[in-house]
Structures are given as C-alpha cells and as structure tokens.
Backbone:
C-alpha cells in the first residue's frame, strides 16, 4: 500500500514537473525573439566580490533605465532585455563552467565578462568556441585580446598607453625626476601595468632602480619597502588591488619612504582606497580609464550625458561611480547599439555590428580596433588632493595642477 | 643597517603572525580540530572593531576586551551546539563541519559588511631608532601577541579550567570519569580560540585593510605557523610565527618578494618530513 502510494506520488510529481517544464519551454519559445538575454558570470563572493557587486549594481541600474523606456527599439519593435547572472565565487575554473552553462542551458544571446583580465581570458575562450559575442568591460591587458578571438570586445583601452603618457607627464611636472621604483602584484593586470611602466620609464630615460613583483596573498611589504628605501627613488609606482595598495601606502609611510611622487594603480580610482588609507592618500596619483568629472554630452545609450549617469548612480547607491561602473554600463549601451544596428539578435550580425562600432557614450568614445579593444582614448591621470580626486591629465579635462608629496 | 631593519621587520611581522596562530594552535592541539573558521573569526573581530570605531570613535584597543569576549561567546555556542556533536569523529569530519560553518560566516560577512577593504585609519606613527623605523601599531600587535601567549600559558598551567583542558586532551574518557564536563571544556577551549582570533582581528584592523578576501590567507598562515612551531605547546605558535616572519622578511629582501611566501611553504614541507612535531611541539600532538 505504502509502495503503491509512493509510486503514485512519484508519478504525480513527474507529471507535474514535466508539465511545468513544457509550459516553461513554450513560454520561453514565444518570448525568445522579443527578449535579449544577457549572460553574466559574476564574482559575487570570494576575492573579487566587491568588484563583482559593482558590476551587478550598475547593470541593475542600467536595466531599470531600459525597462522604464519599455525596452529597446529593434527594427521597429520593442525588445525586452533580461540578465541571467551566476556567482562564480572568484574561481576561474568555475567561471568557465558557468559561461558554458549560460550559453548551452540558458541560451543567452551575449556574454558580459566579469572583473579582471585573468577571468575574462578564461570566459573569452568559451564564448569564442560557441561563437557568442562577449563584451569585456573590466579587462585591459592586451594579452586577453591578442589571441585572435573574433567575438571578444573590450571597452577599456590598452593599459600600455597609460604608462607612456604618465612618464612624460611626470617628467614635465618634476624635472628633477630621475629614479623610479616599480613594485607590482604578480597577477595579470597589475603585472602588465608594472611591466609596461618599467619599459616606458626606461625608454623615457628614467633609471628603474627597483623592479620586483610580489606574490598574490602577500600580507606584508616591509622587506620590499626596505629595499626600495635603500634604492632612494624619486617616484614609487605600485600596482595591485585595493587591499594591497592600502597596506603598501601605509607601509611606505611607516618605513619613512618620502618620495615626491607615489603612484598606486588603480588605488585612488576607488573611494574605498582613499577611505582605507586616510590622510596618507593625499598626493597619491593614479591613472584610470574614466572619472566622473569628464563631461561627455549627446551620447548614445541609456544616459545621454556623463552628468546624467553620475546623478542617477549617486542617487541609487549614495557613492561615486568609478571606472568599473561606468565601463560596464557603457558596455551594455554598446551591446544595445549593436543589436539595433544589426536589426536582430542574431549572433553573427551582432558580432559584425560590434566590430563596426564607432559611437560616443557617456563614458567616452568607443571604437573597437582589430583586436577588439577600445582604441583612441586619452586616459586621465588623477591625484588625491585633500579629500577630493582631481584630474591632472589630459589638459582638455584637467581640473587641477599636480602637487608633489612633501 | 639594512640587516637590522630587516631583522626588526621580521620579528614584528612574526609577532603579528603569532597573533593569528595562537588560537588556531590551541584548538588544533587540544581538541584535534582543524578550525577552518579561524580566518573568518579574525576578520569578524576586525570588522566589529572597524564599525565600533566608526560609530563611537573609541580607540579599538579599548574595544578589544569586549569584541574578543563576544567572539568567545560565538565560539562557545558553535562548539556546544554544533561541533560537539561530531567532536570524537575523525579529524576530517570536524574539518568538513568547520569548513561549512566558515562558508556560512564568510558569506554572511560579505553580505552584511561587503568585501570592501576597511581599515581603522588611526595612524599611531612610528618609533625611529636612527635610520630604523618601527610602526607603533605593529609594536602593539607584537605586545599583544606576547601578552596573549603568556596569558594562555598561565591559564593552561595554573588554572582549574586549564588543567581540565589538558586532562581532556590527554584522555577524554578518564577526564569524564574524573567528573570533568567534557562538552563544556571543549566549548570553552573553542571559545578561547575564537577569543584570541577576535583579539588579533582588532589589532589587525589598525594594521591591515580588513576584507573577507583575507580569511583564507589568515587561515593559511596559521596553518604554516602551527606546523613550523609545533602543536601541543603554547609558545609553539609564538616561535613558529617569529620564525616565519624572519624567513619571509629575509627572503623578501634577498630573493625578492615574489618568492618570499613560497619559502615559508617550503620550510613547512621540510619540517613535516624531518621534524613533524615542529620546532617546539610535543610528541603525539602532530
């Protein structure tokens, strides 16, 4: 009797489940052409949780803006936009698996890459295999884009361009500048920035007196800073993620390293860096891809000016947006523009439209080069002055003169 | 002069490392539990110190006893209600349980505090000895590590609860027959481990940026220190911590910071092969 009931129960559950699955698939099939489905593997927990949350937040804001307008106009019809997100727990392997799941199970039309060049590289390989267009909004290492992928597009500009202009700018502002110490985290983006700066400094005629990397998970920089102090540089250039840079700045001060220029990439671009460092942040310079003081108008996308984006973001999250938020929102705008140009969400057509993109967004101009990277952007050099972030370079958007650290 | 600075850096860093490892060593050595929650306990102590400081403006040093006691309470309850259920199972079972509890605590902290790195920006300055610099906050951490080690040493040797903890570690059944409430002793021991972690977290909030991303790093350091210093001996964590601090400091200066942490792991492997009890550990605890 018990067996029979259990069997009946199972049968009923199976029937209901099958019914639901069929209803679901019918529903999806009918909605398929009218919904643009964007897949996003995000690091919502683990080491990059903070950055992953920024992406999630800005896309939520962007989606609200799109939905408020009733969707996007594609070939004379309104198309809805939907995000499918998974937490890959800052585990690269898992990121790759989830990207595959998004493409095969969820049948997304396009993939948004997560934070960082390392994880973007992993997911780009999956997207390329399935020929799904992918937009990377927080990957700037050329090594991600030089693999011949046709479906990968990135809104950040190459990080090498940043270092050359920085060396020239600092030499102009401080003619005494002769020696630089370079200290970078042994990780894709921070390492590429440190290497690029050391090369740019050497070719710019500076003496690179210290050039070392530190391992991921380093909890103390005193040994390296002692060596830097002995080398007596005029400029310390350190790369890493926010927690590394907070610790690095504090230890530079603790160990009595007083150079006129301290650059931390991309520390001051994040509010949490200046909050974590306190008064020691004053005078620290950095380069970044975007700052909210830039003023673009007549832009394509959800926001027609930089000021509109800034106003909406600060109202929603009570904090300033940084380049991660801006670049990711702009990536979504670029995607919508490509779907509109293509007139459908056909993957090949969208890919071709992306390759031909040349538009101005609130974040700045976007024009993908042959390798898929955004090209032709002059990236700002910023400095913490008092409690504010000032733009030093380029002159067209500069709002302060560079100050040396005493 | 550089050599003396490196030596001092190593000793101060090592003392901070000891701070991380004391509670972990106690729980592992006495309860035979590899407490995967330890890194999260330290971060929780750090977050509580940061938010209490931000809210009240009170120097975290004065908040330390309150926060550490709160962590003691959390540790006691976790052991009493959860870990005690499996405490006599093989070490892998307790390891898995604490791993699961750690995932819950870690993610709760990420949700409620976010993973944003935070630091108590109460810079206390440095002590200058000629060309050498010693940051005051790190010296305080060093003082705390020495104090906690001494306190734990005295508690284990001279107090009733300390003797009960040692007795339970030596022979659980005999201790039960002697009238010791074993489950209570386990919970107190785990609570003391959490107390130490909480205290370390408070000090660290002034030295390091606190973020949930660091829980694994803290746990890894505690693990290496215990293997180097040895289990079953209270000063083992202090000696292991200082040894690791000195090794990383000299390696960072001589062969580069990229390889400094690797040297610590290599030493751990070497000791596991030639001296499994660690530098000052007691035989039978490894």
Residues:
């Amino acid at each position: 009797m018990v067996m029979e009931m259990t069997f009946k129960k199972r049968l009923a559950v199976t029937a209901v489940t099958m019914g639901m699955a069929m209803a679901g698939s019918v529903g999806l099939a009918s909605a398929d052409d009218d919904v643009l489905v964007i897949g996003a593997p995000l690091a919502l927990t683990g080491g990059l949780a903070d950055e992953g949350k920024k992406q999630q937040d800005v896309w939520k804001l962007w989606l609200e803006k799109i939905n408020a307008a009733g969707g996007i106009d594609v070939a004379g019809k309104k198309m809805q936009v939907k995000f499918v997100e998974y937490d890959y727990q800052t585990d690269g392997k898992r990121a790759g698996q989830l990207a595959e799941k998004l493409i095969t199970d969820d049948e997304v039309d396009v993939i948004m890459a997560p934070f960082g060049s390392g994880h973007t590289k992993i997911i780009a390989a999956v997207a390329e295999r399935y020929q799904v267009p992918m937009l990377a909004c927080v990957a700037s290492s050329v090594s991600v884009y030089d693999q011949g992928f046709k479906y990968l597009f990135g809104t950040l500009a190459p990080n090498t361009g940043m270092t050359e202009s920085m060396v020239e700018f600092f030499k102009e502002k401080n003619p005494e500048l002769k020696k630089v110490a370079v200290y970078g985290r042994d990780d894709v983006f921070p390492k590429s920035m440190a290497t690029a700066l050391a090369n740019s400094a050497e070719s710019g005629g500076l003496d690179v007196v210290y050039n070392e990397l530190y391992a991921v998970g380093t909890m103390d920089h005193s040994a390296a800073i002692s060596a830097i102090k002995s080398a007596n540089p005029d400029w310390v250039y350190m790369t890493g993620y926010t927690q590394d840079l907070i610790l690095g700045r504090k230890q530079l001060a603790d160990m009595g390293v007083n150079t006129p220029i301290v650059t931390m990439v991309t520390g001051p671009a994040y509010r949490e860096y200046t909050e974590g460092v306190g008064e020691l942040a004053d005078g620290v310079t950095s380069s970044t891809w975007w700052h909210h003081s830039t003023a673009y108008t007549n832009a394509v996308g959800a926001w027609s000016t930089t000021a509109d984006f800034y106003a909406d973001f600060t109202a929603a999250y009570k904090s300033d947006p940084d380049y991660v938020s801006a670049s990711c929102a702009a990536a979504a705008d670029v995607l919508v523009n490509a779907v509109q140009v293509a007139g459908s969400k056909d993957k090949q057509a969208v890919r071709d439209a992306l390759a031909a993109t040349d538009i101005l967004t609130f974040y700045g101009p976007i024009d993908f080069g042959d390798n898929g990277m955004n090209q032709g952007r002059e990236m700002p050099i910023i400095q913490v002055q008092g409690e504010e972030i000032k733009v030093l370079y380029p002159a067209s958007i500069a709002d302060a003169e560079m100050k040396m650290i005493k | 002069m550089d050599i003396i600075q490196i030596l001092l850096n190593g000793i101060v860093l090592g003392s901070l490392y000891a701070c991380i490892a004391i509670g972990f060593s106690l729980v592992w050595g006495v309860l035979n539990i590899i407490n995967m929650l330890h890194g999260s306990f330290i971060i929780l102590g750090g977050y509580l110190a940061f938010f209490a400081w931000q809210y009240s403006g009170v120097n975290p040093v004065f908040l330390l006893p309150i926060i550490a006691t709160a962590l003691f309470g959390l540790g006691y309850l976790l052991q009493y209600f959860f870990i005690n259920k499996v405490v006599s199972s093989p070490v892998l079972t307790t390891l898995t349980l604490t791993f699961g509890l750690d995932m819950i605590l870690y993610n709760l902290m990420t949700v409620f505090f976010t993973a944003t790195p935070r630091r108590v920006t109460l810079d206390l300055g440095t002590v200058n000895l000629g060309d050498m610099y010693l940051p005051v906050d790190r010296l305080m951490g060093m003082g705390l590590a020495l104090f906690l080690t001494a306190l734990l040493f005295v508690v284990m040797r001279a107090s009733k609860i300390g003797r009960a903890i040692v007795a339970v570690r030596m022979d659980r059944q005999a201790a039960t027959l002697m009238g010791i409430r074993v489950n209570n002793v386990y919970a107190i021991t785990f609570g003391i481990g959490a107390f130490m972690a909480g205290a370390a977290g408070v000090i660290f909030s002034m030295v390091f940026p606190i973020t949930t991303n660091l829980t694994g790093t803290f746990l890894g350091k505690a693990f290496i220190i215990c293997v180097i210093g040895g289990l079953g001996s209270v000063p083992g964590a202090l000696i292991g911590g200082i040894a690791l601090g000195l090794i990383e400091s000299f390696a960072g200066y001589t062969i580069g910071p990229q390889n400094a942490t690797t040297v610590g792991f290599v030493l751990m492997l070497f000791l596991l092969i030639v001296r499994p009890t660690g530098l000052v550990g007691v035989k039978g605890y490894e």
